[in-house]
Structure formats: C-alpha cells, structure tokens
Design goal:
This protein has twelve helices and ten strands. By secondary structure, the chain is an alpha/beta fold. Helix 4 runs parallel beside helix 5. The longest helix is centred in the first third of the chain and has 15 residues. Bound molecules: S-adenosylmethionine, 6-(5-methyl-2-OXO-imidazolidin-4-yl)-hexanoic acid and iron/sulfur cluster (SF4).
Length: 317
C-alpha cells in the first residue's frame, strides 16, 4: 500500500512532526484506523532480570556502572528462571499479553547466563504470552537460538539520531545497533526498536531517528517511544520534563511513517496526565507498559491504568 514507505527523508519526517497539530492528529488517526483495530491497547509488562553494573555509558541510564556511585542503584545478578516465570505468571494474571525481560548487559555472551535466558523465553512462550527480551548486542547464532526458543520480539532501541548519538553514548556505535537489528531480522524474531525524547536533542534529531526506523525494510513491528525519565546521579538528572505536546507529536509522527507498527507509549508515561496519555493513544499509540515498575524506575499504578482503559472505552488486545 502507498502509505508503507521505506524511502523517507529526514526533512519530510520533520515536516510531519512540525505540522499544525490538528492536521497531524487527523492524519495519524486516519492512518491508525486504516491499519489497526480501533479502541484497542496492548498491555506489556517489564521485568529487569539482571540489574545495574552495565559497562556501557548511556547518559540517560541508571543502570550504567559509570554513574553507579552517584545513582546508588543496587545491582542484582541474573534472576533464577523459576523466579522470572513466577513474575510472568503474575503479569499474565493481571492481564498482560506480552512479557519483556531486560538485562543490563552490553551484549549477550554464550554460557550459563544466556542458557538461562533462553529457558526464560521458552517458559514465557509456553505460558501463552509474547516473550520479548532486551539484552544488548547479539550475533546471528544467539538470535537464532532465541528464535528457536519461541522469542516473539527483540527490543534494541536506536535511541536518537546518529548525529546526536555520540553525545549520549560513547562505548558503542550506531552501526553496532543496526548490525544487531539485522541479526534479529534474519532470525525471524520481530524487531522492537524506538528511542527516547527529552535528552537535549532537536526536532531534527527526532525526525532523523524516525526516518532511520521507517526506512528499515520491513519496518520494526514495534516502536517504543520513551520520554526521558531523568534519574538523579545520571548525567541527564537536570533535564527538563518532556512537554506533553512533544510526546504526542512524536507518537503521531511514528504512527504516520510506520503505519503498521505497534507504537508503544513507554517510559515517562507516569509523568503525563491521563488526558495526555489518551491523546497519545489517539495519536496512534496502541501499547503501554503495564505494571508498577519499568526496569528500575516506577511506572503507573495498575489500577489507575485499568481505570484509564475503562474510561476511554478501550479493549485490551
Ligand atoms: N542493555 C540493553 C540495551 O541497552 O539495549 C537493554 C536494556 S536498556 C535499559 C533498554 C532501553 O531502555 C534503552 O535502549 C533506552 O531506550 C531505555 N531507557 C533506559 N533508561 C531510560 C530512561 N532513564 N528514560 C527513558 N528510557 C530509558
Ligand atoms: C524501552 O524502550 N523502554 C523500556 C524497555 N524498552 C526495555 C525500558 C525503560 C527503562 C526506563 C528506566 C528504568 O526503569 O530503568
Ligand atoms: Fe547498559 Fe542498556 Fe543502560 Fe546502556 S541502556 S547503560 S546498554 S543497560
């Protein structure tokens, strides 16, 4: 179909991002209804299966070892398979249909820890939930092993534009990220890739990141849009909160340039009003992180989310 393009220019995406708000919303909502069941939202729960002491220096991240002295984050080794599956069971009982497990690793290393993660993926899949993991970089064999265990999605964010990237992360390159995404794609596992706004990037950087995601062929099946959670002790501790309208614009633009993808309203949702969150859903978001915790920071209250879903008349997909 005409709407599915993989030849966007950054300027075209920027024009959409900065278009008059009502035009932007109308276009996003029109595309959304063409490609997705209306009034539905997916609930994805997150669990940090290995926390902190990560060797990477991502300036937004409370889990980087580089800022551990200042953040005071307690590091935790890889959880036991049974404990993770118990958490997945609880998430399912609360209504989640997708379970995402995150490890503060630079990348996957073969050995016992990875063997255990493969078992976690198998267990979550056997429970009838979509299993998703985010483990940093990986190679083709590792991606294939995860695929074989039933992994539905691999989360690996581009985070920002290649031009702004070096301001945020110096311990790996943008190309490393793209290489991992290619291994995931070849394994048959779906791609979950998005980014963060509110780190000091310009609208052009935001458009450029969406351009790169939207020029992947096929598009990532899922696109998380995070608003920076500025954590004390990280280099981003002083960043201003993302303006609601900027978040809504970002979601709407992601929806327009990637019509079929699931757009996930991700970190930072807790700081937005109920109305802003609903505007994001109108703009084309059709998934949220559900459960009281993201990885290390607080997420929205479960009951408040259920109330929001009921009030907006949404169905859980
Ligand atoms: N270490 C792996 C990696 O970087 O791919 C997986 C875990 S990492 C915490 C997953 C994603 O969480 C990051 O790519 C980033 O987009 C997001 N993230 C981390 N800290 C955040 C924060 N303070 N605010 C918003 N998003 C954040
Ligand atoms: C994504 O894009 N956002 C999630 C998930 N993928 C792994 C992580 C958000 C982390 C927010 C900071 C924290 O809780 O540590
Ligand atoms: Fe490590 Fe991922 Fe955090 Fe970067 S975002 S410091 S790679 S856990």
């Amino acid at each position: 179909m005409d709407d599915i393009r993989t030849d966007w220019t950054a300027d075209e995406v920027l024009e959409i991002l900065e278009s008059p708000f009502l035009d932007l919303m109308y276009r996003a909502q029109t595309i959304h209804r063409q490609y997705h069941e209306e009034n539905t939202v997916q609930l994805a729960s997150l669990l940090s299966i290995k926390t902190g002491s990560c060797p990477e220096d991502c300036k937004y991240c409370p889990q980087s070892a580089h800022y551990a002295k200042k953040t005071g984050l307690k590091k935790e080794p890889l959880m036991d398979v049974d404990a993770v599956l118990e958490k997945a069971k609880q998430a399912k009982e609360h209504g989640a249909t997708r379970f995402c497990m995150g490890a503060a690793w630079r990348g996957v290393k073969d050995g016992e820890a990875f063997d255990n993660v493969v078992e976690m993926v198998r267990g979550v899949t056997d429970m009838g939930m979509e299993a998703c993991v985010t483990l940093g970089m990986l190679n083709q064999e590792q991606a294939d092993r995860l695929a074989e265990a039933g992994l539905k999605a691999y989360n690996h964010n581009l985070d920002t534009s290649p031009e702004f990237y070096e301001e945020i992360i110096t311990t790996r390159t943008y190309q490393d990220r793209l290489d991992t995404l290619e291994c995931v794609r070849k394994s048959g596992v779906t791609i979950c890739s998005g980014g963060i706004i509110g780190m000091g990037e310009s609208n052009w950087d935001r458009a450029r990141m969406l351009q790169i995601l939207a020029n992947l062929d096929p598009h990532p099946e899922s696109v998380p849009i995070n608003a920076l959670v500025s954590v004390d002790g990280t280099p981003m501790e002083q960043r201003q909160r993302v303006e609601p309208m900027e978040m809504i614009r970002m979601v709407a633009t992601a929806r327009i340039v990637m019509p079929k993808s699931r757009v996930r309203l991700s970190a930072g949702r807790k700081d937005f009003s109920k109305e802003t969150q609903i505007m994001c859903l109108m703009a084309g978001a059709n998934s949220i992180f559900y459960g009281e915790k993201l990885l290390t920071t607080a997420n929205n209250d479960v009951q408040e989310d259920l109330d929001l879903i009921a009030e907006a008349g949404l169905k859980v997909a």
